Amino acid sequence: MENLRFIGVTGGIGAGKSELLQYIKRHYLCEIYLADEVAHTVKEPGTECFERLKALLGEGILGADGRIDRGVMAERIFRDAELLERVNEIVHPAVRRFLLERLGEARKDPRTELFFVEAALLIEAGYREILDELWYIYADRDVREQRLRRSRGYSGEKIRNIMDRQLAEEAFRRSCDFVIDNSGRLEDSYRQIDKKLEAFTWQE
User: Fold this and answer.
1) What is the pLDDT along the chain (204 residues), one digit of tens a residue?
2) Residues 6+ apart with CB under 8 A from 77
3) Full-model pTM
4) Distance of CA 97 to the CA centre of its chain
5) Cβ(31)–Cβ(102) under 8 Å?
6) Label partner for 204 (CA 20 to 30 A): which of 151, 153, 165, 170?
7) CA–CA gap between residue 99 and residue 6 (Å, rounded)
8) Domains of the chain and CATH, by start
């Protein structure tokens, strides 16, 4: 669609980004991409990204199926900041190219009015410059901690370590055009979304 809206969705871990995007997917004419899933797609065997990562990290990162073993790769780069940066220099541009190719295709489809990309690191990765809008999904820190303990079984220490590495609330708010408060009931968040997207086609 020529007037398609390209929207980024970001926020801290446990804020409920995926849950709200599922609601949008059910009720609006849109395409939605999660950057973490795209990152796995661009690392499939046969891709340029796969070959470059194999050259950088060695064949030891491959599993028995010939694909990159996520756990092994994560272990290799977790405590090596320089290696992590080099991996990101390969993966992030590949993800961006993938998304821009899909965006170009979506613009030709009259049935697609909205194109969403979700990632915790959209701001740090420089997406602000190519997005039409950037949304921040906010939730109180205590609420996020409870969700992560319940849904993922994370320990308090693990949650704190992850949260402390992510942007502060003020930084998210400063960089984003629209904030959804997802601290309470999902129905309240849905109403915020519907009001924001009232100009677009609604589907039951």
Assistant:
1) 678 999 999 999 999 999 999 999 999 999 999 999 999 999 999 999 999 999 999 999 999 999 999 999 988 888 788 999 999 999 999 999 999 999 999 999 999 999 999 998 899 889 999 999 999 999 999 999 999 999 899 998 998 988 988 999 999 999 999 999 999 999 999 999 999 999 999 998
2) 57, 83, 84, 87
3) 0.91
4) 15
5) yes
6) 151
7) 11
8) 1-29+114-197 (3.40.50.300), 37-112 (3.40.50.300)
